[in-house]
Amino acid sequence: MALKTPEQYKQALSKLKPNMYKFGQLIEDTTTNPHTKGTVAGHAQLYAAALDPEYADLFSTTSILTGDKVSRYLAINQSAEDMITNCKMKRAAYHLTGTCTGGRCAGYNGLNSMWITTYEMDKELGTDYHERLKTWLRYAQDNDITVSGALTDPKGNRAFPPSQQEDLDMNLHIVEVKDNGIVVRGAKVMICGTAAAQEIFILPGAGYKESDQDYAVSFVIPKDIEGLMIVEARHPSDTREAEEGFDVPVKIGGITQAYLFFEDVFVPKERVFMCKEFKYAGAAVMNFIMPYRAAIGGCVAGQGDLMCGAAALIVRANGLSTRVVNERLIQMYINNETTFAVGVAASALGKKHPSGAWLTDPMLANVNKIHVGTLPYDTKRIAQDISGGIGETGCMPSYVDFIDPKYGHLVQKYLKASSTAESRVKIARLIEWLTLGAGVPGCMHGGGSPEGAKLMVRLNSGIETSVAYAKRLIELEEDISEPAPKK
Amino acid sequence: MALKTPEQYKQALSKLKPNMYKFGQLIEDTTTNPHTKGTVAGHAQLYAAALDPEYADLFSTTSILTGDKVSRYLAINQSAEDMITNCKMKRAAYHLTGTCTGGRCAGYNGLNSMWITTYEMDKELGTDYHERLKTWLRYAQDNDITVSGALTDPKGNRAFPPSQQEDLDMNLHIVEVKDNGIVVRGAKVMICGTAAAQEIFILPGAGYKESDQDYAVSFVIPKDIEGLMIVEARHPSDTREAEEGFDVPVKIGGITQAYLFFEDVFVPKERVFMCKEFKYAGAAVMNFIMPYRAAIGGCVAGQGDLMCGAAALIVRANGLSTRVVNERLIQMYINNETTFAVGVAASALGKKHPSGAWLTDPMLANVNKIHVGTLPYDTKRIAQDISGGIGETGCMPSYVDFIDPKYGHLVQKYLKASSTAESRVKIARLIEWLTLGAGVPGCMHGGGSPEGAKLMVRLNSGIETSVAYAKRLIELEEDISEPAPKK
Amino acid sequence: MALKTPEQYKQALSKLKPNMYKFGQLIEDTTTNPHTKGTVAGHAQLYAAALDPEYADLFSTTSILTGDKVSRYLAINQSAEDMITNCKMKRAAYHLTGTCTGGRCAGYNGLNSMWITTYEMDKELGTDYHERLKTWLRYAQDNDITVSGALTDPKGNRAFPPSQQEDLDMNLHIVEVKDNGIVVRGAKVMICGTAAAQEIFILPGAGYKESDQDYAVSFVIPKDIEGLMIVEARHPSDTREAEEGFDVPVKIGGITQAYLFFEDVFVPKERVFMCKEFKYAGAAVMNFIMPYRAAIGGCVAGQGDLMCGAAALIVRANGLSTRVVNERLIQMYINNETTFAVGVAASALGKKHPSGAWLTDPMLANVNKIHVGTLPYDTKRIAQDISGGIGETGCMPSYVDFIDPKYGHLVQKYLKASSTAESRVKIARLIEWLTLGAGVPGCMHGGGSPEGAKLMVRLNSGIETSVAYAKRLIELEEDISEPAPKK
Amino acid sequence: MALKTPEQYKQALSKLKPNMYKFGQLIEDTTTNPHTKGTVAGHAQLYAAALDPEYADLFSTTSILTGDKVSRYLAINQSAEDMITNCKMKRAAYHLTGTCTGGRCAGYNGLNSMWITTYEMDKELGTDYHERLKTWLRYAQDNDITVSGALTDPKGNRAFPPSQQEDLDMNLHIVEVKDNGIVVRGAKVMICGTAAAQEIFILPGAGYKESDQDYAVSFVIPKDIEGLMIVEARHPSDTREAEEGFDVPVKIGGITQAYLFFEDVFVPKERVFMCKEFKYAGAAVMNFIMPYRAAIGGCVAGQGDLMCGAAALIVRANGLSTRVVNERLIQMYINNETTFAVGVAASALGKKHPSGAWLTDPMLANVNKIHVGTLPYDTKRIAQDISGGIGETGCMPSYVDFIDPKYGHLVQKYLKASSTAESRVKIARLIEWLTLGAGVPGCMHGGGSPEGAKLMVRLNSGIETSVAYAKRLIELEEDISEPAPKK
Asked: From the candidates B473, B477, B482, B487, which should be mutated to test the interface with A, based on the most A CB atoms within 10 A?
């Protein structure tokens, strides 16, 4: 049995050499530091879920490599059912933790993407990347490690490709190829969940030409590898995480995003899965983002479900029936189900790759990314609408004031409605946390921006097929094609 | 081989005894009458498609009864794949015919619904309805007939149930039960595609109590059965169908909706599938509308695809590149794919019924009905936006004016842009036909209204589960339930 | 007193020499021809309204030229109040006639635009156009004539300007300048309300360079001028206008759009207001569209009000209370009031031109055009949603069937709900007429397309001012400007 | 000259007796406390603006009482122009301060509301409230004080009116009427800008019956009155306000919301404007919210302008042209202009009250509140979309990390794009601050919720008028009215 317990996971995390910083301080232990322990607690719940009969089908599966029960986050998606279960797992993970458990999902997409991409490279180039990946994956499964994934480069001036940047480090790149490995420099930024991860799976960017070949690189490293320094980004209201009380109302989940600085990091050969094969970088990214963009619909649906629950609670805490907000609750559920459903459909309409992995339908995956860039924002707005002023911006005195010996009794007296003041405040804080606070994930740009997804919708739209249908229908013979671009 | 050719289908239709009227005239032969031949041509294409290698997988399948190749429209959906293919078939049917081929799809939903409902009735009540249905279905498959479906009653004053209407005929009902069958009276209204059908499958309404038991009735009849009189409804610009030229630009598709008047029609016992079992009427309706609401997303997606094609054509006919309308085209595709995807997901997340039929996920099916009540309207608006004034309301002189000997040359001279005038007019007429004209189907209310779907979303939302997730997340112990209704 | 009665107006119309065609037939008298009498009846109501104490303040005003009471449609807008009253008049005109009374409003905008433009031309070029316009306007006011306005050229291949078209007639142009006038050739297309007009006011297009100077032309002509041939465009369900009964439920309003063919028409000098001054063509168009785009918000609000009324009626005719559709009715009103309000605000924030005319705020006028391209479509959709299947596509047997001696009683029996069948059908036909039928105006593209309006919003957005506010707020010193375009 | 300088204003503030608390601490001086000095700086800018020739017309006007130049925030709105200028002032105040300067605007609405309401009370009841108000207003103008306004009561269990609450203090109420004044107890909550105010204007709630008469109370008090204790609410990321650096990027604006606890506060008679006249409480609230709901459209437009500016800056800081985000920027401006315009129109279509005050159009004011509950949320979403990951959630290391001696150089190196790292971070922090941070105001519920506004739209919709228009248009004689409610 490869599955680890939450305790085993936390112990393993604690053993890592500290190399993360926030607010100018070294984080000695991510499992106890106030700014990381929330996300660690969230990820620990994923371990518990894999062992919990109620959730085991979602969070675990059978290894393609060993036949063992392994975490789904370390498995290759082999079928529509796998991909649909992935969407469901993401939704459930949100229910359990309240926010993004990003320390596993980008890693999961990364290893699935490189499973396909290395298979193709090996077949076409005679390399042995796929075998290397298998070996590492077996190790990862056997130890049930948490692997975050890193794709986004700093990019510098967006008007120029990597090789034409003033500072060549603006995209992570290979500075030396040795017999036994490579040396890389640069950074990956806004990387979700690294605080909760044991290893980090690195993907290249896309759109590389031959001159950018040094940037075509993929590998996996232990988080505490030499030469890697990590600085945590701040997020809204993050200092509350170090406070007492319930102004951060969720203790069993949290989110972190990190800046990873690679200062000439040596990566041993057996952990390298792409090394300058620039023609495959684009495919690696595509294979990464398609399942990501499908499954993220489940994430935001799960977040939306919590908003529905919180909205219902605040209405009742105020002494009213949810019937008075029915129309709005229904709209919230419509939003939730839509992103979930489009992801499920993208999964169902995918196809099998020769490597054994399942490819998500690109059209629907991208349509979903666009919805993820709008519908959850509407859901948040409605949650704030329903919750009244105290939920809209968390407009209540702080926990310190709530328990203040001089005037805490007044704060409590006047925050009471139908429920106790404490319950009402906690519910309102949950709405704030979900919509404006430390629980807000970066779903708009995670897995790429809606604008990029629109371009891909255009590419996948098959407009000439639509034109052919229209022409056939009205028996139009004339050739009416796109005019030649003007000189 | 049970599949019929388009010609065989039309011949069979021609042999039916005429009992349909429009504009005060008896329609002698629906295959040639100008107001029905379009929809017959559309349905004939479905026969052709089932025999066409390109489309056969969509439009035909294997009979659960005989193992023969049969039309999918006469098959029982047995799996997620069947239901997904149903969604794809609906989309393809729109591509081929430009509008709703309603003469088959409600019948298809009706027989699938009653497959499940009769199975349950037989099991619980010891009736033999399921066997009757099987026998009839086998006959229908063997003869590859087109079976329309009829659900909507006139309903009269919506404030009262059937048995309390001033005129008891406002809902179709049993007036006599004989040994060998039943006699029914009343009407079914706004029934799609009956002009193209050989038989009609009747479903009961929902919400019946014991006092309404006479209204709980389901059966199937030949269209030309004695006592049935059919009057066709008019639709926008329908008189153009009797004109020469291209003001109706589509000759291979069309839509009809009929009012069916049952004046003491005798239905033989073996064609009766429900007879006063009022407790099952609700289930019959639910089992009908769930797959309907899922698959209708494919219908409107197919219609939207044609709008995209037509929009691209008009832009090019004007001499421009589709690049100038990219943002809007993308939005059209997003709309199309969303309704299609939610239907696919509703299919994928369904489950198997003991009768062997596949049940669609009710939450997603209803969410889709709501989207079908908004997104296609946005798509139409964009099509009109892109097409300019001539597409917006078909603002061009008539075909008669186009070819007028005195001034037709001027009409043509000034309607020419980059393409010929004729092509440009036909494309603009297609946009008019799809958005404001005779090709507009009744998708808003077909399969029930969006408002009804919202109620079902509420019922299926599992709000207490959402509440439980939210409570667990913030460790809220207090019982905060819905307040008791005020006295 | 310059104001004419409806009867005087119709008599004047009847005296015009017939030169309009539809369906290959010459329209002998627009006041009686079935395809034009509706719009004439609508315009006649405007005359009645100007004389009706309830409406006189909206529909009439005091002449800037004579101090007489004149139709507002022939007056110069001199203040914010005038422009706001214009918005209100448009809304009221819709209430009275059910659709666009386009025979007066584009003429009104045309003469207001040229009032400003000729003033500037005269001042800068020493021409006498402004005086010519005054003289004509005095005549028009004295005779209280209906003047339609024509702006849209056929345009041909949109990739080329007028002077580079293969056929130079694709935009209306001057073919000869004589001592006593000019000769013009070409066409104006999709011109609203010409059937109800006595004269036609011609505007140039925009974007002309010196090589396009022959296209910079503005004048006003009697509708029956020699060399002008008019062909009416068809619109949805227009043949119903020639039928008996209530399938066109509105008899006191209607809409027409015409194609005007100018075959070497001689226009006397005193009716010419621009003759090759290409630099002023753009301003003429801008001065035309700004008030148009403001006031059209009133038009669609008035149409929306009717949809609200019709929706409320159908709900009650079905036996229900409007409370069940409250949420949707409110949304309809929000849509109505929004376009009305943005137009009012564009009026209120305008400014006085030295010529005495009032200039509408360009930013808000264009924002309104964009809303007019979306919100009314939502209102229509909701009206169809509320109205059920019979309103959605007018899914009812025709009037001929309704009164058929053989089965009309059945049609009537089953169309009855709480109200009589006839009332219910008429209400449903009104909804069809407003949303899918002969009453649908061309608001999307009338006064220019939403896409063009977006470009003008961008131009008027003052983005550098926004940038300056943002920079000041965060005390940002660095110069961060738009990058130079790439070579 | 009654206008004070920013310095005079701050000095006056500093002299107030401290009675505000946050985080368990007494705020000794709101002009220097880190949690209040931002909002004080913002309000000080309003004083500067009234003296600045560029802004004086917006921020000052002539006193109806004395003819002196006074702050517009202390003036009675007497005309459409006054109300339109109010909308413009709100927009400009946002440009200057980046957020809500709530310390003046609710007071402004309060005194305008009570100007009207006291006029009516005096006229009908023979009271002298209007004179009391005049006397106080003259004092307020002469001293150019900042007056915040307080309306929202804690309300307790929303199922019960004030007099039936378990705890009668859940709405502010009169506990004793003395000869020389009244004693009040209870609270007002979520009161904006009190930190920056010298006095507080109290309004009653609405919907009071005779049994609730003790709750019908209005008065104005110095902020440091005996018996009043104020606890500041927290808001997102508020602890950053006490940090060094630019993680709160705006130093010249800020927002606060307070809980006001009245523990038997004595208010002298001459400062009391309503005392148990429960029938006038509803009018007082209506007269308060109408101009509020109109002008708030200007507030959110001003906020939106800043988002446009910030979005343009981040695009350029990344090295790109704003052309690539044109479509989205245009949508942001459309949103901004719409709420602004509807407020302007509500102002323009108002009417004069006998008291001399201007009444805002209630229909449009409420329509605007609904837009304020949706459009700015869309604008925020687009700002986050355009800004990329670093703007979406402010996903960057903290200022402390930015300048960290060990790794600050890496943070800076990799945050640089086309502009400097510091500029780019400040811009991204501005977007965070505006959309997710300490600058987010409570616009959804300020001035009442969108849901309440919908009810008022319904009340003002004049649906029977719409019905009458529709009936007239189709010559419908039958009386089709609302059905009687079922027993």
From this structure: B473
